[in-house]
Amino acid sequence: MRPPPPLAPAAWQSPAWARCLRRYLVQLPGRLRPSAPLCGRASELSGRLSAMRGLLCWPLPVLLFLLQPWETLSQFAGPRCRTGPLDLVFVIDSSRSVRPFEFETMRQFLVGLLRGLDVGPNATRVGVIQYSSQVQSVFPLGAFSRREDMERAIRALVPLAQGTMTGLAIQYAMNVAFSVAEGARPPEARVPRIAVIVTDGRPQDRVAEVAAQARARGIEIYAVGVQRADVGSLRAMASPPLDEHVFLVESFNLIQEFGQQFRGRLCGKDLCAEGRHGCQHQCVSTPGTFRCACNPGYQLAEDNKSCLAIDHCGFGNHSCQHECVSTFGGPRCRCREGHDLLPDGRSCQARDLCNGVDHGCEFQCVSEGLSYRCLCPEGQQLQADGKSCNRGCREGHVDLVLLVDGSKSVRPQNFELVKRFVNQIVDFLDVSPEGTRVGLVQFSSRVRTEFPLGRYGTAAEVKQAVLAVEYMERGTMTGLALRHMVEHSFSEAQGARPRALNVPRVGLVFTDGRSQDDISVWARRAKEEGIVMYAVGVGKAVEEELRQIASEPAELHVSYSPDFGTMTHLLENLRGSICPEEGIGAGTELRNLCECESLVEFQGRTLGALEKLTQNHILLRVGGPGWRGGVGPPRPSAASLTAHWPS
Question: Same structural domain for residues 117 and 150?
Fold first, then answer.
């Protein structure tokens, strides 16, 4: 047997020299007498051993150091692999076919591989299981956070030396080793799970089906076969692509070749560090690639880069009465404006702002949202102060025709303000077939009836029709509009009530400039027909024309606003003017008072009213107590009663 070559500088680190030294020393004990001390009997060696004399006298720790598997340890020299978080489990075959020195090589391989990984709770977590006919956990993923503790557990590993149940080991790794209870990170953390299976023979159970289940659960499997390993079984276990996940080495001494390739896979480029990942929140580096992750409270979108807030309310189990708000901690209930959340965190209660405050409402206060409003009894309207009420026109009957200037000088945006102003007038009218009837005429160079008096029976219908009116533009023929009103708008065919019913007829002209035709004739004719005329001027309206149009006195029938934006202040004046002071009651039947039957009824009611006044001592009977004149007849007529106002 040839002794190892002489030691050149740094030659002791050569893997080839180390292999030669081990082979030489394995045969060395047979050439020594067992009873002779190793150093003292060196002179008895044959001439072929003379070159080893100095070596044998080295201290025993040095010899043991030289006996280490240099090719396994030296491959991991250099900087530590910096990967993203991994859950890495080694599945080691310790069946009886693995001889002791081969198992020792595998053990050293694991230790060396650990030294090249970035191990830690937030980096790579490592677990080791060994198997033969049964499966044994050497240490789980969550057991150790320090590399030294892992190495100590691996060095203390004792092989099981039984059968080869690889399928059972894969199932254990899938169900136990990669469980959260054993230290694996939860699936939603999206930390890669990698299993490295090292075996030297053919499995004694089925591996294809259980390996497919493990891969379906997101476990990436590397299959490493040594010596007698079955290639078909390795390919059935490994993840695709197979050329990157299946390794076959001739002996355990060459297993470091897999270690180099595996470490190269883990220590690829950090694609997150290059800054071109496109992740909205977080980039997590994984072997050879990267993945995007989201901050707490968010989930990854379909593009696997963007993050969307988790909609906890979308699950439909929040039980909120009003609104559900999704927060990082889960769903939270919220009430609509004007409501308060009750202690149960789900129900809402309306906030009563009228209670306990000086709201100042004359009649009724209604709480709404963050404020309140005042209401008036039926038939009365809220005043400008928003608190007091008046009777308005709710008990009057009027036929009202509105003449609206649609000339081009008005302009579209101002025409919309005019329509809004008209609807505000409608708001204080009792629009109904028996109450107030409203018609609308627009004029420019021509005249167009937008809707006649008899078409709509409610205020809502009138207001909707007003909003639908389209702007005409062109000239300003106010005289033509007045003629149309007199001849057509107040006709019974257009919905006006007969004159015999004495329903007031009111015309309201709205204009912003000088008329292009004569207005005097038809303005006078309208008044002669008994139509009460009102004139509303805006901007460049001519006062002389407004006075010609309006009834007397002009102070009550003419209104003016310098611009369209401020004309709403005219509403109160118009309401007080248009509404009749003594309207016919809404419940009163309109009849011709000239009919004989009506006249008799009128006399009867008058006598009854006077009798009540007499009984209440408001009127004194002629000749009765307090009367200073002569004695009257026992049953006086209405003409024999006179009023007396007590001092």
Answer: yes
